[in-house]
Amino acid sequence: MQPIAHCTAVILTGGESRRMGSDKARVLWAGTPLLEHVIGAIEPLFSDIWISVREKRANLLYPQVVDRAQERGPMVGIKAALEAVQTDWVFVIACDMPFISTRLIQHLATLRNQHDAVVPFAFDRLQPLFGFYHTRCLPLMDVRMKQGQRSMMRLLDALDTHILREQEVRRIDPELRSFISLDCMEDVRKMECLNE
Fold first, then answer.
1. Per-residue pLDDT averaged across 100-113, rounded?
2. Number of domains in the chain
């Protein structure tokens, strides 16, 4: 399988995990930490994988980008990643999404062209934590963050964003499993029951 060109995958692990009650990246799903599930799924697609963290993690074999800003939220981690990596594009995914369709990621990659971002629409909303972002996003991110605006939805609305409609997403991922995030232990237990 050919790696996706000009792109670094960035797995976001810097969230506060309030609903989970512990570090999501280390929560076990089917006996394996969630972060390792995500790495294993996307590893064949990317030459470079980075982990976005709030503070350095021990025992990680992948480069880490530390989001040092006082502010919180995905935009902080995505901006830090775009500034740190050596490629024009990053593919961003959250660490709590273990049911990834690699075919969907590959399809999104083909839609980049001259856009600033490529993001799917699923479950009646944009899915900014499963998308491609170009370094062209940085100036607007910088302006928004200085203004205290950290909404990814508003950012995507202001950028040249290619949105993959849900109907098209379902052709590849019919049950939209790629966008199931395990936000709390109840989610983990529920999905483990369904997986049995």
1. 97
2. 1
